[in-house]
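Hey, quick one: can you model this chain's 3D structure?
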Amino acid sequence: MPKPTSTRPAKPPSNPSPPPPPFTTPPTSLLPFLSTLPHTHIYITHIDTHPSAFKRRIFRVPILTHLFLTLLLLWRLWAAIPTYTALALATLGYPSAATIDVHGAAWPALAYVTLRRTGMFLVDWVLVRYIAAWVWDFVGRAPESAVGWRWKVGYADEEVVVRVSRGWDVGLGEGWWEGEGEGEVFQDRIMPAVERNLVRAKTGYMMMDKNWDLDFAAMVRAHGLVRAGEVGMAEFRKMVLVYSEVHGWLVWPVWKLDEGCQDEGRRRKIIVFKDKLTAMGKESLFFRWVELIQFETSQPGGFNSARQADALKKAKQLFESQGVDFERFWTEVGGVQGLPGMETVT
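Sure thing. Here's the predicted structure for all 346 residues.
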């Protein structure tokens, strides 16, 4: 689990160039939280709005599971102490229940004892190496565990969830969002994790997977800042956080895309748009489109008709550079009307 690097608000480096889309500079109100995060990971935040009673029922399952495993481990420890004590005495040459007359015993009997003890050692190793470690991670992980998080935060109808990238972020380097690895990171790691239906369907605790872990310490700190009035709950709406040596902390406010597709019809339009490009083997164009529209809508003056026309011109160049007939593509998917940010295009 990453440890906080500082308790002081982090001031971004002075840099005249704008952040690379779809990222923007974070609001200053978020700096007290960002200052506690290590710079070496990618983070995703969102607000879990499932009812507190539902979250309590969900968390009851791992509590009962780990309680059962703890009792299993204690029973095995109680049962194993006499056996391992006898083995230790026999190894030291003292008579015990584990002593075997190797000269007088038959080979089948020796083979049976050897296999039985080897199996016992293997089972106990698995219990200690994996089961006990899993239980300890749930209860005593440093700097904060799942139990510690629930004990300090409790259950609420609105809870801050902070996910942190696992080991795949090692070696990405500065500016990965503009390099060759950008497509893979966005398509395979980030976009599936911020998918609207996923976030709506699962409570925060259920969102750990092979790509993302929960940063329980960051979640505790976030709630502490909200309760102290230093940061508003709304500041933790769904977003992606990355650190740049050039720009400082950068934020991709994914929640703006969600606001743009609240209507079911527009959501279906996005799905058709993405699926069409995927079928053509051009899924990366979907993410380039998202970046382009996100960047244009974040510019001063709003996303007016002139800016929309300019965005379409840039999109046409982008599509045609990938060998996609822009006019034909939009004819086949029913036009750009209805996509987030393009509602007024005619």
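One thing worth noting: The CA atoms of residues 172 and 180 lie 10 Å apart.
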